[in-house]
Amino acid sequence: MTNIVAVTACPSGVAHTYMAAEAVEAAAKAKGWNCKVETQGSIGIENELTTEEIAQADIVILTKDIGIKNEDRFKGKTIVRIGVSDAVKRADAVMSKIEAHIEKATA
Fold this sequence. Notes:
By secondary structure, the protein is an alpha/beta fold. It has one domain: 3-Layer(aba) Sandwich (Rossmann fold), CATH 3.40.50.2300. It is about 40% helix and about 25% strand. It has helices at about 15-30, 50-55, 85-90, 90-105, and strands spanning about 5-10, 35-40, 45, 60-65, 80. A five-stranded mixed beta sheet has the order 3-2-1-4-5. The longest helix is centred in the first third of the chain and has 16 residues, at about 15-30.
């Protein structure tokens, strides 16, 4: 089973942060993958990823519109950086690209 963790954040830290989190989570689950998304919004960090969840992750997705807090936690992991708008509008396409990468890496 593929494990995905993600952190979503946007410059205003409100709606798009949560819309992106929902879209990424739904697209990953549609592939049958485990997924946990941490949000970094105007009210701080919610649903914070644990050290264990990060260690078990095959892929880390980070939105790139604004700096992610504590990004050093993901050192050594395969990181995919996407715009928050791509996370909202194209999460399925992003997951398909990740799936192709995983299949290539394990072939």
